[in-house]
User: What shape does this take?
Amino acid sequence: MTQYVFFFGGGKADGNKDMKDVLGGKGAGLAEMTNAGVPVPPGFTISTQACNAYYASGGKLPGEVDQQMDAALAKLEGLQGKKLGDASDPLLVSVRSGSKFSMPGMMDTILNLGMNDRSVEGLKTKTGNARFAKDSYRRFIQMYGNVVLGIEKDKFEHELSAVKAKHKAKTDVELGEKALDEVIARYKAVVEKDTHHPFPQDARQQLVGARDAVFKSWMNPRAITYRKLNDIPHDLGTAVNVQTMVFGNMGDSSATGVGFTRNPSTGAREFYGEFLQNAQGEDVVSGVRTPQPISELQKVMPKAYQQLREITTRLERHYKDVQDFEFTIQENTLYMLQTRNGKRTGLAAINIAVDMCEEGLLTKKEALMKVEPQALDQLLHPIFDPKARKGVEVAAKGLPASPGAATGAIVFTADEAVAWAQKGKRVLLVRMETVPDDIHGMSVAQGVLTATGGMTSHAAVVGRQMGKPSVVGCGALDINAKAHTLKVGGKTLREGDSISIDGSTGEVILKALPTSASEVIQVVEGRLQPEQSPIYQKFEKLLGWADEVRRLGIRANADVPKDAKVAFGFGARGIGLCRTEHMFFGAERLPHVVKMILAAARGQRGIDLTRRLKERLKEAKGGQAAEIKKELAKVEKEYGKHVKDYTTALKKLEPMQKADFMGLFKEMHGSPVTIRTLDPPLHEFLPKREELMVEIATLKAKRGSKSTIAAKEKLLRAVEELHEFNPMLGHRGCRLGITYPEITRMQARAIFEAALAVAKKGIPVKPEVMIPLVGHVEELKRQKAIVLEAAREVLGASGSGVDFLVGTMIEVPRGAVTADEIAKEAEFFSFGTNDLTQMGFGLSRDDASKFLLYYQEHGLIERDPFITIDAAGVGLLVKTGVQKGRSVKKDLKIGVCGEHGGDPASIRFFHEVGLDYVSCSPYRVPIARLAAAQAQLEGSASD
Ligand code: PEP
Ligand code: MG
Assistant: This one.
């Protein structure tokens, strides 16, 4: 029989911390804490399997779930000596969701379950606190009515406001027993009117309703959006935790709160959190009341505070991670409601991992596994430009919930944020408090600003997780979402006005401020000394540990010296791809590139014909020579001008390319530099056909200069000649170098000239010439011959001490499956997984997003294969290429330079299939270093 229900209580639990798949994070935590002797209110967890069974059978649960739940409930009642719904001393429970990965606020929670017309009286007598009992009941009806019965919150709020007005009460707390009775009666009427049934009085029926509602909430739209944003699979399901209620709202000796064992925003080693006296948990997290810092608890309840410190420190040691905990103090007795590994910003993640290692809590390897590679990205976020920031007035200050500087136009709803962002505007979402429904707006906003809520409110938690700069609990804001206005610091702002927030200090500034690079970037770019930046030092320390364990080399894709410098600063040791064509777009180069293209076909033909005729001339006898000379003269007449244009343009480009390559070699300080010969279809360098046609027509209409019109018409003819129906599969890659070998020759010469010049300065160089888009070994063979010829011309027979390699990209499926043939000619391989995905999957790189999104939303594929390598398909091509290549050359150097080289999941794959290095954009180098180390650690753990 499947066990669906797991009990915890009385110092023992059925589950433990390793059962997150079955019990969800919260359930596993409760079980583990119970086993560890931490005071946890007892209860039971209904497993994620029950949730999945519920969906599999269209909203029904297997009979065993009910049976096991009833047995667990009976056990709980026995342990507590109370019965659910009892008239004299009722047991009350909370019912909460809890999936494997925490999804704050995304699913439903119900508190005070078991309240009914009879048990409310029992609770009143037992506690001697009528107000408390009645308030608990009215809260329960409201929550149950909304979550389980689907009645809009406003309908209850409306009644509450009406009673408050009638009794002239400003706050809920001012409502006495009588008034609360009135609220209860009105709430019950709302339920009856809306559902045509009275509010359910049967406690078990309540429990079943709540349980099923939690299961249903797994598939509510906001939970689905959250999972998509966080890459959480939809088939995990949620568990349901049914737990004895304890009350933080039983007077001033009671409290409820949340906290972290370290600061989740900065990582500082400080006990961190907040609490509310005489309140229920919901009040803290919903952000409705602004709570007090946890240090205040020491003053009001010193004993409970000490115990909380002791327990949470123990939990941090036990889990070897920062704990995010919830607690309730009921009449001076402390209960732990939840503990889990705390979410944190990228900044905090690095600080915590390094600190914990230095405190001896973690080994270096464990510390490396604690940081999500992607989180490193947050440290590269901009900060306000210090000069611009100086002297600017701060209009208000809130809590610094998620670091980073943000500037944008204010909007007041999530939908508006999305609408503005779609129009390309940078927006800042301003809300009273954010709710889970706002998540789509938060994800497109530059930052989030709220008027209420603490450091653990929704906006704060989600903001941190998204790496969104957020300022919360900024009480000075007067927001009128309906009127689309924000009053602050004596000014009234309207939707669209620009403001700035600093998520690291909590400051709000009423103007747009320029932002500048993060500290880490400043160090990497040489604008700040490493000693001046503690965070850079920790960042580098952690990545240094990563370098000690990783097997994969890390290179960068960089085309210009500036990017190469950044990449080197980030720890790249080599350039895996220099796309030479990017240099062709420079303003001073493009005219020569265009000339080269216009002359290429005829110019190349002229060169080829001349060469062939000259060879024949050498062997010509008698009258043949005169004949050949005549032909040569004809060729010269027909093609001479084109040859000249072609070679002149190439000659102009050669020194420019040489200068670029010299810069790259210098910045890489002797690490390999892979330079790819020209790759894109030539028409990319020319103006668009339609634009030219319009220009010509306009010139003609305005009687423009004849020579300009003629030149444009010539260009148009070239564009039309170069037109291809399928340029991505057309005249590009090595096909260009094969048909226009002079281009390859010029590029190869520039590479060797640059290498020689730099080597002469005493700087070691390692050029690697890479031929793109090879699908047939013969293509590589011919291009390689040209490269070797250029090397001989430039370096001489001795090679002048410049060691270089000639290799190929493997990015055409045929190249991958004939890699054994190709390896005979190649000194290295580099997988071009962008094209390999395009051609292997048959998906156009430029158009696929239109339907790939649909594929993802409808579950056909889990991830975009242009972001994460499709291991089963395209990955198999990579694997085959590696095996075949190395079957010919055992030590063949193999890397990857497609976008996947910077994606952690893909990096794991490349590690597993035995690549030597990954190459990615400079800013992803830190991510790649850490991901490569994690791949190694995960691999060795499973060996
Ligand atoms: C590739 O195809 O993966 C690659 C790196 O080349 P490009 O993106 O320039 O086509
Ligand atoms: Mg490519």
